[in-house]
Design goal:
Blueprint lengths: L2 H14 L1 H41 L22 H10 L7 E10 L2 E10 L4 H4 L24 H7 L10
Antiparallel strand pairs: 1-2
Length: 168
């Protein structure tokens, strides 16, 4: 049997019951449209999460001391940060120094374990958008060596508001 005969036979069979064929074609078109929509939605969510992680937290690149990723020790530091930052600046990249650690935050009788991120308040806004998302109060001023920015959940847990003193 030739291809033309097979195709002709198939089209005759499809249009023999037009209502059933139109319902089937419509259902498949609807399902295909929904699949394309949700694939695009998923890709958009994924791209947004990636962008938020980069812009709000890590930046595009992190430089750690050798062995820090395997064993995040507070004393495992990069010694020549100024030289590295100057080289990055010359190459057209923004950079900021950070210090990570864990500790305990307390206010009055309330306390909570915290992840501490010490940042260079002058350069951090060039690397991340963290400073734009302060809900109440202000981003730490460059001259303020005792100021902190805490998350909403920690502030609620400690009962802290802008201007309150907390102990780290």
């Amino acid at each position: 049997m030739s291809w033309t005969a097979i195709v002709s036979f198939a089209f005759r069979n499809i249009w023999r019951n037009k209502q059933r064929s139109l319902v089937t074609i419509g259902a498949m078109a609807f399902a295909g449209t929904i699949m394309i929509f949700f694939a695009g939605l998923g890709a958009g969510f994924s791209k947004t999460m990636e962008r938020n992680a980069v812009e709000m937290n890590v930046g595009d690149l992190q430089i750690h001391a050798p062995g820090y990723r395997a064993d995040p020790d507070l004393y495992a530091t990069v010694n020549n940060t100024r030289e590295i930052m100057e080289r990055l600046d010359k190459a057209g990249f923004y950079s900021s120094e950070r210090l990570y650690g864990y500790g305990l935050a307390a206010k009055g009788n309330a306390s909570s374990g915290v992840w501490i991120r010490g940042v260079d308040v002058e350069n951090e806004p060039r690397v991340t958008l963290l400073n734009r998302h302060v809900l109440s109060g202000e981003w730490v001023a460059e001259a303020d060596h005792k100021g902190v920015v805490i998350g909403k959940k920690l502030a609620h847990s400690l009962g802290a508001k802008p201007g309150d003193e907390i102990v780290l």
